[in-house]
Amino acid sequence: MTNRTAPMGTPATAIGARLRVALPVERMGTAGFTGRWAGGTAMVLGPVLMLAGALLRVRFHFFYPDQLAAYERHSTLMATAYGLFAAGSVLLWPAVAVLAARIGARSPGWGLWGGVLVVFGLFARAFHAGVDHLAFELVRSRGAAAATEAVTAGYGAFHVFAALNLAVLAGWIVLALGAWCTRVLGPVRAVALGLTAALPLGVLKGTTPMSLVALTGLCIALVPSGVRLLREAPRLGRAVALRWAALTPAAIAFMVLIGQAG
């Protein structure tokens, strides 16, 4: 006999069950909440995009008057360079989350402080990228001379994110020491990761030789781990892979449209 008093599933529960089947997500494990797919992809793309952006602007002097003048003459090139660098920097947070989780599984202190300091430093770089964009828009509307004058007037002014400048530098060293002490990374790749601390910070900073050394070290440290994570990730069925492949760019395009709409 059918039990008429048995609770029925709510519409939200039914929708959630269908989504879990259609778009399955890996259970949280040693890779942290980002999982192996998101974490591994970020480990590969983040450093590579930052290095590509740095290489695109390498021929221009690194200080801000020269960067603004370069944007006036080569706006598309410079916008692409700064955009790639900023996108790679933002993509680093899932990569750092994975690395910190693996370090933290063996030594919670190293994982906590290394991960927290680096992510706070990435917030500071995102702030700098916003100022860079505003300065370039001033070049577009007022010219390089006026933009340089405006940046000079405000250069060094206090802002909340200035407190994170030390985190930008020290975070990578702490994370690298944690990765080495816990054997998450070998000595060579741990040193390569620590070299990221040499990456110049601040507003409208171009590419220096140390920038290329630091970003090459970041690639050496993270890209192999990202490739390994992707190989270890659970294999997706063809139908599921096609759904994710269609949904991801569609979601990105939708967010871009919403962002442009204000």
Shape by Cα distribution:
globular
The helix content, as a percent range, equals over 70%
Structural class: mainly alpha
Structure annotation, total helices: 10
Distance between the first and last residues' Cα: 58 Å
Radius of gyration: 22 Å
Quick one: how many beta strands? 0
* Beta-strand content estimate: under 5%
- Helix/strand order: HHHHHHHHHH
Question: How would you state the average pLDDT, rounded?
Answer: 86
Give the low-pLDDT segments.
none
Brief sketch in words of this structure:
Helix content is 74%, strand content 0%. It contains 10 helices and no strands.
Structural overview:
The protein has 262 residues and is mainly alpha-helical. Helix content is 74%, strand content 0%. The protein has ten helices and no strands. It has helices spanning 11-22, 35-56, 64-73, 75-104, 108-142, 144-154, 165-181, 187-194, 209-232, 238-261.
What topology does this entry show?
Elements: H1 11-22, H2 35-56, H3 64-73, H4 75-104, H5 108-142, H6 144-154, H7 165-181, H8 187-194, H9 209-232, H10 238-261
Descriptive keywords:
10 helices, 262 residues, mainly alpha, 74% helix, globular
